[in-house]
Amino acid sequence: MRIVGMYPAYRPRRLRRTAALRRLVRETNPTVAQLVLPLFVRSGRNVRRPVRAMPGVFQLSPDQLIREAERAYQAGVPAVLLFGIPDRKDEKASEAYAAKGVVQTAVRQLKKALPELIVITDVCLCEYMSHGHCGVVRQTARGPEILNDPTLELLGRVAVSHAEAGADIVAPSDMMDGRVRAIRAALDANGFVDTPIMSYAAKFASAFYGPFREAAESAPKFGDRKTYQMDPANVHEALREVAMDIAEGADIVMVKPALAYLDVLYRVKAEFGYPTAAYAVSGEYAMLKAAAANGWLDERAVTIEMLTALRRAGADIIITYAAKEAAEWLQAGA
Ligand code: PBG
Questions:
Q1: The domain made up of 27-331 is a member of CATH 3.40.50.170
Q2: Which of 51, 133, 219, 266 measures 20 to 30 Å from 93, CA to CA?
Q3: Catalytic residue at 289?
């Protein structure tokens, strides 16, 4: 498309003169209907443990989780994404698929209290493994190794246990190869043919996850996640990962982190036209909170600008720790 010199009478300023005119011709409008609020749940009653690098984010016991979800729902947020912090960790991530595990218990209570709220569960093992990795670990002569295939069976069990508890969508974030197919097969075999999978398809090995690992108590005890998460430098690999997840049965694909990966998001949406989610991760939230606390950035304006950018780049769904505030601002006409 040739743009310059083609439209001699065009004067963009005419359409920018008033706020009403600007709204009339606005191309991208973030709405509350697309927001997902991540929440951290642990056992107990009346527990609200603040996460140091994420002001306003807490590890919550199920009763407090319901309160938090209720507030967000009332503000217009249609969905939450749950992460669990178990009482016990081991080498098999037993608590991740226990029928009375912390997430399973929370999902049951949430669905009872707020039946219309969409409950998405993160399917991963890192919070439940004593070593903090997303897969099964074996000691070898070369040192510890993460085993892809033995992990798949466990992930299938986690997803089924979440669906049994009432989860509306399961979201695998482990990045093992073949997990979407394994999870789809496990769900189908257990009668959950209608439970969608939102796969963390293009998930990069990012330093922006720093604050999350404190929130979820899931930092790896040795090594890093670079063998199973993606190199931030690679976009073609991201497209292959997304293609694979779609072929294996993903219903929604995700790009994560969000702001530093807008080009990936744009290409994923353009290439596949699938329902696409962007995850504005813990570090993105922390950066803005820190700058806002110092009076260096206008939190409300920047939050809305970031949501708009994600929408413009192609996100259908936006997962953000600022979902409740953003919903309130959007409802107030931001
Ligand atoms: C678990 C998982 C992580 C995040 C979501 N699921 C952390 C990781 O991969 O280390 C990060 C979310 C965030 O930073 O907000 N596999």
A1: no
A2: 51
A3: no
Q: How many helices (H) and strands (E) does the chain have?
A: 11, 12
**111, 112, 256, 269: which one is catalytic?**
256
pTM exceeds 0.90: yes
**166-186: per-residue pLDDT in tens?**
999 999 998 888 999 999 999
Q: Is 203 a catalytic residue?
A: yes
Q: Residue ranges per domain, the chain? A: 27-331
Ligand 1 neighbours (beta carbon < 6 A): 122, 124, 126, 134, 173-174, 209, 212-213, 225, 281-282
pLDDT (tens digit per residue) in 104-117: 999 999 999 999 99
Ligand 1 centre distance from Cα of residue 260 (Å): 16
Determine the pLDDT at residue 4. Answer: 65
- What residues have CB less than 8 Å from 105, skipping those under 6 apart? 43, 62, 165
